[in-house]
Amino acid sequence: MTEAPPLPVAALPTALVCTGCGGRLADDAALALACPAARPGDDIDHVLVRVLDPAGGPFSEDADSPNPYVRWRRRFHAYHRARAAGWSDADYVALVERLDAAVARADHRADGRGFRITPFARSAPLSDTLGFSPAGGVWVKDETGNVSGSHKARHLFGTLLELAVEDARRDAAGFPSEGREPAPLAIASCGNAALAAAVVARAAGRQLDVFIPPDADPVVVERLRALGAACAVCEREPGASGDPTYHALLRAIDAGAIPFTCQGNLNGLAIEGGETLGWELAAAVGTPGGPTRLDRVVVQVGGGALLSSVLAGLTYGGVAPPRIHALQPAAVHPLARACERVRARVAAGETTDDVLADATRHRSAYMWPWEQEPHSVAHGIVDDETYDWRACVGGMLASGGGPLIASEATLEEANALARATTGIDVDHTGSSGLAGLLGLVRIRAIHPDENVAVLFTGAVRRPPTPAPGDVHATSGAI
Ligand SMILES: [Zn+2]
Hints:
Blueprint: E1 14-18, E2 48-52, H1 68-71, H2 77-84, H3 89-106, E3 120-122, H4 124-129, E4 137-142, H5 152-172, E5 185-188, H6 192-204, E6 208-212, H7 218-226, E7 230-233, H8 244-254, E8 258-259, H9 269-284, E9 296-300, H10 305-315, E10 323-329, H11 334-347, H12 352-359, H13 389-399, E11 402-406, H14 408-422, H15 432-442, E12 451-456, H16 468-475
Parallel strand pairs: 4-12, 5-6, 5-8, 6-7, 9-10, 9-12, 10-11
Antiparallel strand pairs: 1-2, 3-4
Helix pairs in contact: 2-5, 3-6, 5-6, 5-9, 9-10, 14-15
Residues 18, 20-21, 23, 35, 37-38, 46 line the site of zinc ion.
């Protein structure tokens, strides 16, 4: 970066648009992560999304870069805002690489690199066990070795790039920053999203407030605190519906915190960062070692950002669209419930597009908090609501796919099968998409020649192994 750049005046090839109210942020406006027109109780399904100019643009990739944020940088809104403000391409790459190296240090990565394109391979033992032919099979996208041990940091690193460019633009435009503390980042999570947020926030030197439930895993809480995050425990209030950590997050955002979350309605840019996963899937199709085509993708859904990101990523990925399935636990499946409501109206004669258009202004008729406090062995996808539900339902129905529900027994079975056949140290949430595939195989809904992708999204969390000296220190304290 050199001297003070002008604010952009020409139209950018990317834009932030609300799919609920239709609002579009002006190219030279301050960055927003959520729709500025959203008002409490308006029942409009505001979700801010980054769109690419359909007329085309400089969205080309650098196919030889192993870092997805460098390879596909021209699809990021931050890239085009930076270029419009006078940055060179090399300036932007330098920003990504500097923050990526900081992520690697925060995550204790020995290779000095944070994000790399993750493995995507056909598992022969898993494919054989499920009865696939050599022409088809189960393809596993392994996110367990990604930053912080899950896919979650993808969403948040994309957001961080947007915030970093915005801060640089403000500084260059002469906004006073001296003596002004940057707003804290905030998230409601007790698992992989919080851990990913803590790594990415620490890499950027930003404060992170994490709202957690009383039963949060002590291993996770200890790691969050070690990363410098401030954890606030939120009790569930009798009679109150919805997730109390989510309500606390909303209060923090009202007080000025930045939603550093993986929930698309609060942080639409989380979807942009997560699209890297869809781009990686699409880029593998037709390559040596990759599938010749993808027939289906089964994605586990909690808040919906992962599925929404994969859908958007595949849209821009240039491959024939696979059928998309969302897997939720039987214990909590608000997305499947919403999808059934849409399907009922379609069966009565309306078009899917008309129903989803109606849903933009009557959100509560389709999506509301799950009534019972949910518990599942797949604890990472027990969200009360699927925040990105409309994009998920629209994408699934357009693809010829649909929602799937798995019992606790099937979630357990899928995890045991995943671990035994692939050797990947995946946890129950991470393997839950496979539970959906098990269900499809059982009802013979899959042809043996199909190529099906599942996403192993998170690794098992274990307490850190004590150093040899620590054992003696504790055993001698009698
Ligand atoms: Zn809106």
